[in-house]
Amino acid sequence: MLNDISEELNLSASQPVASTVIRQMEPGEERDWDRFVLSSPFGTFFHLSGWRAIVEDVLGHRYFPLVAVQEGRISGVFPIARVRNAIFGDCLISIPLAVYGGICANDWDSYFRLLQAGSELGKRSGVRYMEMRNRFEPFPASLPRRDLYLTFTQDLSPGPERLFQGLPRDTRYAIRKSQKAGLEWAEDLSDADFYEIYARSVHNLGTPVFPRKLFTRLREEFPGLVRIFGVRKSKKPIAGVMCFYFRDIVMPYYGGSLQGYQRDSPNNFMYWNLISQSAKEGWREFDFGRSKRGAGSCKFKSAWSMLETNLPYRYCLLKAKEVPHLSPIDKKFQLPVAVWRRLPFAVTKALGPRVIQWVPSI
User: In a 10 Å sphere around its CB, with 0-12 CB exposed, 13-18 middle and 19+ buried, how is residue 60 labelled?
Assistant: First the structure.
């Protein structure tokens, strides 16, 4: 695998680029890192430097913020974390908690030298593989990939009225139905209310819940870029969503709704209000995030007539012989998921934060 990457680098030798140096980000260099990410067309919210503190403090994983430097200026970044677990194995991921990641670089040389540095780091660490959760792939590498995820995006520039008319009939019907169900859009949902809704929602899916500290740290590390919205019925919070804001993009990321209210279509109500509000506020793009092919969330998002794009996740196999299969939809995880669903909510709420940090696929 390292030989293959070296061959990619040899192909870039004819490119007229400055000498590229690869090293780790130095203390106090966070602003330069973020300035590069914000300026790069391949940067995402998950490439921002604040994720280092979250991955280290919340999950307890070691973080390696690799940077490419040309003539004293950052020309690429590659955030990597090491996830070590006796059950799932030892791997490098760019990055845990994120749906996007991988290498953010504007030129070929920076990209492939960062890729080589990450691969060498994995080899020295003795990990099984390195996973890159690419959103964009400006310089495709000859690495195996798994086409498991889609991402959904919507141009908000037409405005709420035209966006609504462009929705499928069934989706419009569900939104109108929710608007007649006595639901209220809430911009003042408390952190405690949001966490309770989210914890119950993921329990119903058979997934361990993150610690509440994660959501607190997100607000601390990204002030002004994280907002919580929700839905109430008869003053009771029944749905909630935490959104990330990056450049001119709004991304609902963590969300859920309570069982027992599905006949009122609270998710349709929540996401339509968020789309409408975001368009009015001048945000350019609505990023509905990734979903696994065949999952219920994928079917739900497909009903909004958004642009569907394959996510080109790449894997550098070191000790592993094949691309890992760690998705909850894989057959080997069906029994644990079913058992987790049947556990009392109070038990999963207490145990979930201890379990989820060791799952590489998060």
Answer: exposed
Q: For residue 36, which of 13, 4, 1, 66 has the smallest C-alpha distance?
A: 66
DSSP 3-state percent helix, strand, coil across the chain (nearest 5)? 40, 25, 35
The DSSP 8-state label assigned to residue 110 in this structure reads H
Query: Which residue numbers in the chain have pLDDT < 70?
Result: 1-18, 86-88, 326-333, 360-362
- 59 with 127, same domain: the answer is yes
Please give the Cα distance from 126 to 120 (Å, whole number). 10
Domain count of the chain?
Answer: 2
Give the model confidence (pLDDT) of 254-290 as tens digits: 999 999 999 999 999 999 999 999 999 999 999 999 9
Structural domain of 176: 151-310
Q: Dihedrals φ, ψ of 233, to 5°?
A: -135, 125
Burial-class residue 361 by CB neighbours within 10 Å (0-12, 13-18, 19+): middle
Q: Is 8 helix (H, G, I), strand (E, B) or coil?
A: helix
pTM of the model: 0.91
